[in-house]
Amino acid sequence: MFLKRLEIKGFKSFAEEMNIEFLSGVNAVVGPNGSGKSNISDGIRWVLGEQSARSLRGSKMEDVIFAGSDTRRALNLAEVTLVLDNEDGEMELGYSEVSVTRKLYRSGESEYLINQQPCRRKDIVELFMDSGMGKEAFSIIGQGRVEEVLSSKPEERRAIFEEAAGVVKYKQRKHQAEKKLTETQDNLNRIEDILHELEGQVEPLKMQASAAKDYLAKKEELEEHEIALTVREIEEKHEKWTALQNELDHVEEKKQKVNNKLQQDEVQLSKVQKEAELLDESINTLQDKLVATSERLEKEEGQRRLLEERGKNAGEKKEEWEKRLQEITRKNEQTKTDLETQQKKLQKSTSQVKELEEKLKENQKKWKRYAHSKESEIESLKSEYIERLNEQAAIRNEERHVSDQKAQLNKKSGSLQKENEMYVRERQQSEKTAAERREETENLQAHYEKMKTAYKQLHKQWSEHTEETDKQEKKLYEAYRYLDQTKSRMNVLEEMEADYSGFFQGVKEVLKAKESNLTGIVGAVAELIDVEKKYVTAVETALGGSLQHVVTETESDARQAIQYLKSRQKGRATFLPSNVIRKRPLSASIKQKLEAAEGFITVGSEAVKIQDAYKHIIENLLGQVVFAKTLEAANNMARISGYKVRFVTLDGDVVNPGGSMSGGAANQKKGQLLARQQELEELKKKYKIMQEKTENLELTVKTLKEKREQLTRQLETRGQEGEEARDKLELAKEKLAKAEAELSRANSRLSLFDKESTSLEEEKRKLDHRQKVLSENKESIKAKLKQVEEKMTELESMEKERGQKLEQLKEEETAWKVELAAAKETMSHDSSEMKRLVSQHKEEEKDLETLQKDIEILQEQLSSLDGGDDALQVDIEAIKEKKEQLTQEMTALRRDRVEGYEKAERLKASIQQLSYDYNEHQKTFHDKQVELNRLDVELDTRLNSLQDTYELTFERAKDMYPLTMETQEARKKIKLIKLGIEELGTVNLGAIEEYERIHERVSFLSVQRSDLLQAQQSLRDVINEMDEEMKRRFSETFTEIRHHFQETYTELFGGGEADLHLTAPKQLLETGVDIIARPPGKKRQHLSLLSGGEKALTAIALLFSIVKVKPVPFCVLDEVEAALDEANVTRFAKYLRTFSQTTQFIVISHRKATMEEADVLYGITMEESGVSKMVSVRLEETSELIESAT
């Protein structure tokens, strides 16, 4: 296998694609400095997987991409392909030619390809690993790296030897194995953490799952018993329900009969009461009508009397006025005659009058005082007098009317008085009845309160007794539960004892076989001893495993038992032959000192009881053990004994002979053989004591239940009596309410009567007052009439006196006139007389006209009064008939109302009795209905419970879950199961599934842990094997390289000597490599003191030594001989030629001697600035090229 071709494109200075075909032998790449020759070795190193930009003479990986020049732009891709000839098949890829390509984009993306197939960088590195052609291999020595080989640390220099030894792949595999081992350890740690966490959950979950399973089992058992008990209760309650339904039907039938009669009477009573109400309304209506009719009659009669009085007055006045009219008419005729006569006289004496006018002026003054007539006042008084007469007639009429009204009121008052007496009797009866009902109610209320108090006291007694019964019953069930638990625990302990649980397998087998296959077996030490409870921990600690030692009669018995275990592969056991075991007591002096020490309790053997025949066994085991109160006391006593005795505290702490101590928290899961025995014995004692207590509790509960049943019956009786008393009280209250209602109605009627009486009295009072007022008015009118009459008499007298005065004045005037002038006397007399007659005539005419009009008016009034009187008389007769009719109707209605009242009372009495009977039946019906409903509810509840809770019909439940015990026993069993469930507390039902899941996961993780442990061990074995192989390879290769280095160094230097030494020969995997060199003619000295040429040639000697040991397909040397002088370069070139038969060399050089030894030359030049190109080199131009290169 050799390097066949190198393809470069865009890598560093190679802007254009360039292919270099290499041949076997020595291939030299030549060219001026800075032309890019070394970029070829960098490209080879880069394509083989170099990751360090610094190793490629750059600052970052992007620097390997062509960065551009003055005339070219930068590229975005660097690509290098290495083509290898694989005809010999050294690379096991199945191809005769293998190409390796690496690409880098300026974006930072990379690609790796093998034969144009994408791959990983790791694949390329592993492909060339241990072939000597890797990126760090000795076969590629870049520019300036020769001195690095020599100046590097011994540990770093070791890498060259490892590559030559072919251990790099082993190191890589070891690294991978160690990485896997670390990952395995991490996984193992994670699994261990998870397991630790899960194992911490398993035990609680196991307990929870066990509790959950126990809960489910108890729940299932509880369901079975509850279903069976429910079925039994349904059957019993259905029987009660059927019997109660029959009783209910019978009561319903009786109740219905009573109810029908009650409804009939109530309907009849309602009808009677409605009729009575209608009668009351009719009576009230008739009463109002009668009063109204009486008032109307009185009013009409009064009106008639008034009309009669007015007619009479008007008739009298008419007669008087007619007489006066005749008198005035006669007088008027006379006045007319006198007037005519006087007229003649006046004409005659006219002339005389004129003469007398002046004289008469003085006399006129006197005349004026008497000139006014009093006739108008007299007429006015007459009119007033007539009005007063009318008023007097009206008052008399009104007095008669008031008298009639008072008579009517007295009559009505008498009627009301009779009704009042009836209402009073009714009220007295109602008051009597109400009083009786009230007294009855109060008595029943007191009786009911007494019954309530007695019931409460009895109920309190029943509650206290029930509470005590429940309390004792709870204690009993707790005792049952304790006995059940204790018995279960005893059974478990006895089974453990019988199965020798806790004993080692070998001991268990021997103890089981002592009754059959083995003889002479006495028993285990733990079985033979008896220890007080306070010493159990100390004895278990002191004896430890000796508790399981088996005591035999003889050594032969012990050998037989050992042979038995061997033959059956049943484990091991320690035996104590009784015939050879000896006592090991404390010395008397030490025991005496210890007994006097503070904290001493006893010697261990003295704290244990055992049969005397085997006392020496315990003295052998515990004779040298002392029990101490505290660890501090044990330490003190240990010093006293000289640390020759074992001390054990009651808590289990130990001070061993010699002074060592052990202690801490005891593991509760280990040992406990003695504690188990102790527990079993205590449980047996407690079980016996509890049995006696349970029997006493059973007797107590039985007595309490009997007493409670008695109290329950008494309570039911008292309850029924209380219900009856309450019903009677309610009935009495209803009766009282009815009686009080009747009394209220009676009081209302009396109140109404009182109001009516008050109203009548008020009317009477008003009528009396009116009579008084009328009487006073009548007297007043009489007085006024008298005054008017007197006034009229006075006025008539004054009028007469006036006339006389006037006559006197006339006579005096005449006399005076006679005295003054005779002529004028006659004229004056005639004139005066004429005036008087004219005036009198006018007044008489006026009076006549007025009187005629008044007479006409009176005539009209008389006609009207006659017509009104006739009409009033007709109305009065009609009203009287109506009043009589109303009176008769009122009498009939009141008679009917009395009969209705009596009938209503009879119906009320019947209804009261029927209501009582109905209430009694209703109470009985209600009680039975309530009981029936309760049974219905209980039956429905239990049936629904079967359906909803258990999804069972009654028939299916009855078939599937028959009750095989008594009901009371079943209830007891259910209560015990419930107590057991309650004792379990909160149960995590998910713990079962969770425990299975966790347990399964723990098992799975345990298997994984086992696999990981196995894988870990396998990796360790592989690593150890690889370490051994690397040691072997490194050691062998180093020895060979050392041998060839000694030879090659001498050959290259023409003398001198060199050697290789390991810095740590015993640590072949980490040892460094030191190079010792002594050039010819010099002493041995440190490599750093060698010249550059000496260093380079020493490194070259080392390279050729390695190649001798492990030939490589190709080797790239980048100016490794640059520091050599010509003579040494010639030696180097000739030596290079020697190895070219087996190794292909690509030498980058500008030394003449090297070029001369090359089989082919490749010229690299930079015709364009910054861009490297390969040029063809003709053989004839070689010398010139060499010259130019040098």
TrEMBL record:
Domain called SMC hinge: residue spans: 519-638
Keywords linked to the UniProt accession: ATP-binding, Coiled coil, Cytoplasm, DNA-binding, Nucleotide-binding
Location, primary (coarse class): cytoplasm
Domain of life: Bacteria
Region Disordered: start-end pairs: 297-321, 332-351
GO MF annotations in UniProt: ATP binding; ATP hydrolysis activity; DNA binding
Annotated GO biological process: chromosome condensation; chromosome segregation; DNA replication; sister chromatid cohesion
One Pfam family of this chain: SMC_hinge
Coiled-coil positions: 167-201, 666-924
Composition bias type Basic and acidic residues, residue spans: 332-343
Keyword ATP-binding (UniProt): yes
Amino acids binding ATP: 32-39
Signal peptide (from-to): none
Localization per Swiss-Prot or TrEMBL: Cytoplasm
InterPro entries: P-loop_NTPase, RecF/RecN/SMC_N, SMC, SMC_hinge, SMC_hinge_sf, SMC_prok
Family: Belongs to the SMC family.
Record comment regarding domains: Contains large globular domains required for ATP hydrolysis at each terminus and a third globular domain forming a flexible hinge near the middle of the molecule. These domains are separated by coiled-coil structures.
The protein's assembly and partners: Homodimer.
Role description: Required for chromosome condensation and partitioning.
Protein name, per record: Chromosome partition protein Smc
Taxonomic source organism: Alteribacillus bidgolensis
